Hints:
Elements: H1 7-17, E1 22-26, E2 34-40, E3 47-54, H2 55-58, H3 61-77
Antiparallel strand pairs: 1-2, 2-3
Amino acid sequence: MTTPLRVNEALLIAHRAFQPFQCVAWAPQDGKGELNFSVIDRTNTRLLGRTQVASSAFTDPTQLERLLKQSRDELNKQGYDLEPWQMTA
């Protein structure tokens, strides 16, 4: 069994996953316990991708890794070059 991630850990992991781009995360104030991740270009002018993640997914290292890899794959298919990345807490 893996140890659940704290929100700050998950945010740092997500930030590293999308280098050299920026990953911005925020929690909507609707009480659902979700996080929204947006990947933006280096000039902060263009949204490259957005993902909504349930709290159960961003605190579970296995689920978070799967979601981040999926998002990375989608960006790669769109032609964006991401730095190599491996999941580390």
